[in-house]
């Protein structure tokens, strides 16, 4: 079957620029969803996705479109639009030949517009520029077109002006998808090679692989081999998303769909792997992916030690549908048994946290998110450490390296001063300034990841009145003059409160940490000394005084029920805390140490 | 477990008994700090409420088995603001058995209940005369609890009290003349603008009046009271925690010096003059409460009556239930409640009694907090008792919360 009538494309955009609305409109126009079935932004499956208005997993839809008397098969792959999920975006793009780059006409080009455009270009996808939300009174399509041309090289007269909400211009856009985007290569006769660009685990059907067939074909009952993993399976079901799962007998070259082949667990599949025919396999696997790099780590401990097995089960459940989330058992002398978890970034971490809380009934205490460091030891080994607690003794460290990123900030020119000051205070080095237009600028920085991974984004928004956007990309580990700050609570060193910082700010940060801790740790029945130590030397002290009065004056007959409730609540309050010796440390305390504001 | 056992206490004559509490929610005017339910008496017809309370009592007595009442306590509000006739009418109903049951079921012949061991009534200084007190004494009241609060006029004004300092000593004097030998005073400390000295003065004055019982309560800022609102508005500042603490410690020291024994967190008495009715609460034994907003713990159920005079009367007159809230604690909850209440007593949990009453071994059930608090010197276990140490008393809630569940 010829691939001439197939078009595979993604929609890429900055958050809230209208990518999901456009996907809805396209599905409506092509009849993929009838009015009755339409739920706004259909593709965002998970509750959290819908609630936060973001897309987490890639999803795919196959649609039919009439053009010039012929019926075309359009395969649309939805992508996430946040800095944490570059990896997911590039996977989806590799399954496509083209992409619609959508820019909000009231916002203009933003940080992820640029980042996603680069990703698309890298993957070889053909770009069509789309200016959206032209229906809004504040829309400035001409200026937006200028920006697109200036930053991304797409000619302004080639950009399509649409409103995904009202539908204006969308049909013309679909025509452009047919006429401007290339069809997939016609490799139906070659040995079968299909790319697994995503997968999910379904309770009943097991692992469902999302595939793009590049060569040959896939059929039901076919014996296939996953080339990277080396395992063979029998296809039990094959189909397309229309957007619901619709079984077919065959997926041909150029097509996108799903494969179910008795794969039990997600860990049996590698995203980016190639599926081929077992009896007539492809010579080489398709170019794969670089596995996602986890940038942010955090330790989770059950509030109650007996909940440890339940916590493990909860994480296993979460990891089922999230291949970029990982967890390994962790043991802290102060906090007991827990898990070290790895995330693509802060947003990823927040999403996992929310899912953990929502889907389980376990009290969890979480340590502040950290980045990983590279240590060159005196005996020549290179260690990657994900937690300050794992840092070897200072006498054994030859070199300590921290991760750096290339940070791009897009902002209005009136906020430049505030942003530069913020960036400077975080050891960022300005590399380039580029004007998008008269009023907007891209600032490119070299930044230590540790300095921007926590509250930088929020501060950036604050300093720019909400308008600045940012994107970053890991560039490598570099040597820094770094030291480890240790905190002692009631004379016990608490690893979970340790932090690695640049020597120039160490003392200042240490004192701030103490002040935060003093406020975050509640008063106890006894006095609690707090100390901060750098390199074995105590450099500052604080003390939490005990409370002196906590007793109900009157407790008579009719007061009992009410009073018992109050006492129980007092006890519950102690649960979301971790016991360090006899000191109870609440969740907020662990997070507070990262707050370096004044 | 024998549920019968939980219903009431065997009294010396071998009969099972339970305390009786009567709530009179009337006051002349509301004090600034009061969080209890009460309404101005001038807005209501007291006879109607008293009739309703009597009716509730009769109704309950009609439901066998109604236990004899070893202790009786009339509280409020201000019972002493009731017209004398109404108060005496109520007391008469309580102390005699007039129920239909006596006439109808001669087979289930109701026996006149044994005389209560203790019959307390709360009174306000300035609302009692020798005349009324004599009649109360004759009617069977054995103990008076006088709401003195403070011997400093400024503090009385601050609290919104309607009596003078002189009214207090006058009340004690006429009480003695009327034949009362068991008199208690209620006092409040940690009043804004008070000092350790002003508190010591109140304490001293109370001691000098020769009363047998003193309750000393730290001022509590209850939700919704004018006092709490004043705090929220920044008009009033609560006493510093450290001074509050000192006042409490001083209370224990001064009273013990002159022969009062602290038997509960806020209660002090000369030996033999502890309030038996309240001891019942802290032993988590059953009692029956009647009147609006009154609480009961009877037949395994904790209930609260409707906290509204009008609705309460309507319910009684229409024959619908006066119970507003009700809870049946399970065995573990009973054990926790018993532990928390017991531990408010200086004698603490008496381990054998606890086992008999709840079926649990307290040392095992609460092993974790006991271990922890022993280390911190806040709990001790000796002589078959588990009790809070002196150091723990001022911060008792922070310890007791760990006994509120398991």
Describe it:
The complex is a heterodimer of chains A (598) and B (406). Chain A is an alpha+beta fold. Chain A has 5 domains: 6-180, Rossmann fold (3-Layer(aba) Sandwich); 193-277, Elongation Factor Tu (Ef-tu), domain 3, CATH 2.40.30; 296-366, 2-Layer Sandwich (Alpha-Beta Plaits), CATH 3.30.70.870; 374-480, Alpha-Beta Plaits; 483-592, Elongation factor 4, C-terminal domain (Alpha-Beta Plaits). Chain A contains 14 helices and 33 strands. In chain A, the strands form 7 sheets. In chain A, strands 11-10-16-7-8-15-12-13 form an 8-stranded antiparallel sheet. A 6-stranded mixed sheet of chain A has the order 2-3-1-4-5-6, with helices on both faces. In chain A, strands 21, 22, 23, 24, 25 and 26 form a 6-stranded antiparallel sheet that branches. In chain A, strand 4 (98-104), helix 4 and strand 5 form a beta-alpha-beta unit. In chain A, helix 3 packs parallel to helix 4 (111-123). The N and C termini of chain A lie far apart (66 Å). The model of chain A has no long low-confidence stretch (mean pLDDT 86). Chain B is built from 17 helices and 19 strands. Chain B is globular, with a radius of gyration of 21 Å. In chain B, strand 7, helix 5 and strand 8 (143-149) form a beta-alpha-beta unit. The relative contact order of chain B is 0.11. Chain B has 406 residues and is an alpha/beta fold. In chain B, strands 11-12-10-9-8-7-6-3-13 form a 9-stranded mixed sheet, with helices on both faces. A 3-stranded antiparallel sheet of chain B has the order 14-15-16, with no helix packed on it. Chain B has a 3-stranded antiparallel sheet with strand order 17-19-18. Chain B folds into 2 domains: 3-282, tm_1862 like domain (pyruvate-formate lyase- activating enzyme, Alpha-Beta Horseshoe); 335-406, Arc Repressor Mutant, subunit A (Orthogonal Bundle), CATH 1.10.10. In chain B, helix 3 (84-95) packs parallel to helix 5 and helix 8 packs parallel to helix 10. Chain B has helices at 3-7, 46-62, 84-95, 100-104, 130-139, 153-159, 165-177, 196-208, 226-232, 241-257, 276-282, 309-318, 331-344, 351-358, 362-365, 367-375, 396-400; strands spanning 9-10, 16-17, 19-24, 26-27, 39-40, 71-76, 118-123, 143-149, 183-189, 213-218, 261-264, 267-269, 287-290, 295-298, 301-305, 323-327, 349-350, 379-382, 385-388. The interface between A and B is large, with 25 and 49 residues.
């Amino acid at each position: 079957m010829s691939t001439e009538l197939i078009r595979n494309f993604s929609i890429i955009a900055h958050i809230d620029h209208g990518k999901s609305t456009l996907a809805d409109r396209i599905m409506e126009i092509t009849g993929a969803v009838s009015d009755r079935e339409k739920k706004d932004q259909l593709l965002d499956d998970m509750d959290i996705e819908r609630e936060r208005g973001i897309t987490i997993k890639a999803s795919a839809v196959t649609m039919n479109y009439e053009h010039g008397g012929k019926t075309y098969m359009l395969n649309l792959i939805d992508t996430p639009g946040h800095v944490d999920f570059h990896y997911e975006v590039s996977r989806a793009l590799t399954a496509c030949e083209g992409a619609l780059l959508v820019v909000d006409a009231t916002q203009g080009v933003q940080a992820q517009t640029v980042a996603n455009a680069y990703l698309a270009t890298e993957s070889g996808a053909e770009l069509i520029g789309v200016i959206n939300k032209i229906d809004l009174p504040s829309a400035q399509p001409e200026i937006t077109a200028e920006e697109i041309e200036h930053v991304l090289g797409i000619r302004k007269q080639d950009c399509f002006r649409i409103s995904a909400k009202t539908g204006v211009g969308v049909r013309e856009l679909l025509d452009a998808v047919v006429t401007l985007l290339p069809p997939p290569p016609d490799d139906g006769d070659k040995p079968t090679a299909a790319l697994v660009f995503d997968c999910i685990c379904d309770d009943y059907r097991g692992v469902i692989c999302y595939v793009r067939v590049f060569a040959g074909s896939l059929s039901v009952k076919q014996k296939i081999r996953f080339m990277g993993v080396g395992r063979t399976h029998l296809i039990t079901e094959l189909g397309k998303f229309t957007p619901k799962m619709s079984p077919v007998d065959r997926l041909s070259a150029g097509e996108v769909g799903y494969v179910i082949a008795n794969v039990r667990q997600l860990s049996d599949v590698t995203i980016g792997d190639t599926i081929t025919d077992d009896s007539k396999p492809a010579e080489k696997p398709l170019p794969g992916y670089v596995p996602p790099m986890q940038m942010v780590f955090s330790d989770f401990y059950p509030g109650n030690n007996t909940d440890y097995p339940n916590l493990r089960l909860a994480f296993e459940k979460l990891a089922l549908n999230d291949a970029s989330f990982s967890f390994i058992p962790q043991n802290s002398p102060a906090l007991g048994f827990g898990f070290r978890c790895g995330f693509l970034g802060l947003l990823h971490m927040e999403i996992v946290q929310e899912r953990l809380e929502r889907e389980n009934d376990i009290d969890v205490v979480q340590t502040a998110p950290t980045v990983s460091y590279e240590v060159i030891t005196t005996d020549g080994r290179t260690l990657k450490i994900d937690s300050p607690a794992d840092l070897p003794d200072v006498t054994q460290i030859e070199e300590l390296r921290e991760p750096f990123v290339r940070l791009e900030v897009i902002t209005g020119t009136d906020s430049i001063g505030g942003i530069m000051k913020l960036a400077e205070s975080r050891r960022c080095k300005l590399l380039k300034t580029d004007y998008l237009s008269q009023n907007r600028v891209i600032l490119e920085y070299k930044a230590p990841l540790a300095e921007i991974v926590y509250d930088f984004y929020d501060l950036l928004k604050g300093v720019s009145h909400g308008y600045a956007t940012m994107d970053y990309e890991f560039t490598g580990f570099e040597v820094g003059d770094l030291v480890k700050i240790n905190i002692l609570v009631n004379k016990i060193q608490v690893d979970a409160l340790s932090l690695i910082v640049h020597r120039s700010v160490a003392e200042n940060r240490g004192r701030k940490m103490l002040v935060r801790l003093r406020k975050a740790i509640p008063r106890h029945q006894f006095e609690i000394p707090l100390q901060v130590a750098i390199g074995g030397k105590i450099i500052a002290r604080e003390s939490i005084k005990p409370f002196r009065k906590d007793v109900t004056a009157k407790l008579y007959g009719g007061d009992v029920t009410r009073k018992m409730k109050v006492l129980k609540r007092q006890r519950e309050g102690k649960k979301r805390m971790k016991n360090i010796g006899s000191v109870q440390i609440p969740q907020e305390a662990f997070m507070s140490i990262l707050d370096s504001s004044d | 477990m024998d549920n019968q056992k939980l219903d009431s206490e065997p009294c010396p004559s071998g009969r099972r008994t339970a305390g009786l509490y009567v709530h009179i929610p009337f006051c002349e005017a509301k004090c600034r700090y009061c969080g209890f339910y009460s309404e101005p008496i001038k807005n209501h017809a007291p006879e109607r409420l008293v009739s309703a309370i009597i009716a509730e009592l009769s109704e309950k007595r009609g439901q066998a088995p109604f236990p004899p009442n070893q202790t009786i306590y009339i509280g409020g509000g201000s019972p002493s603001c009731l017209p004398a006739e109404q108060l005496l009418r109520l007391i008469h109903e309580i102390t005699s058995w007039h129920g239909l049951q006596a006439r109808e079921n001669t087979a289930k012949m109701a026996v006149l209940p044994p005389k209560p061991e203790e019959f307390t009534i709360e009174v306000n200084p300035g609302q009692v005369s020798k005349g009324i007190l004599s009649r109360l004494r004759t009617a069977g009241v054995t103990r008076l609890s006088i709401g003195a609060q403070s011997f400093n006029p400024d503090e009385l004004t601050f609290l919104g009290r309607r009596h003078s300092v002189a009214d207090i000593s006058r009340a004690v004097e006429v009480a003695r003349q009327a034949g009362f030998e068991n008199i208690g005073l209620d006092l409040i400390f940690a009043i804004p603008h008070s000092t350790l000295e002003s508190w010591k003065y109140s304490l001293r004055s109370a001691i000098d009046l020769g009363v047998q019982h003193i309750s000393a309560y730290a001022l509590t800022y209850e939700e919704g009271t004018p006092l709490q609102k004043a705090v929220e508005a920044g008009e009033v500042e609560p006493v510093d925690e450290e001074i509050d603490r000192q006042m409490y410690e001083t209370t224990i020291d001064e009273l013990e010096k002159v022969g009062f024994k602290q038997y509960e967190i806020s209660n002090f008495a000369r030996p033999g003059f502890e309030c038996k009715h309240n001891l019942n609460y802290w032993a988590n034994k059953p009692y029956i409460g009647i009147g609006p907003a009154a609480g009961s713990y009877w037949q395994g159920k904790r209930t609260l009556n409707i906290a509204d005079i009008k609705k309460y009367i309507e319910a009684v007159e229409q024959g619908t239930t006066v119970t507003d809230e009700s809870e049946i604690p399970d065995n573990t909850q009973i054990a926790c409640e018993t532990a928390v209440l017991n531990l408010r007593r200086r004698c603490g949990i008496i381990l054998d009694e606890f086992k008999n009453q709840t079926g649990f071994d307290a040392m095992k059930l609460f092993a974790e907090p006991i271990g922890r608090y022993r280390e911190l010197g806040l709990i001790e276990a000796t002589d078959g008792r588990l009790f809070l140490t002196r150091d723990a008393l001022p911060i008792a809630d922070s310890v007791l919360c760990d006994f509120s569940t398991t």
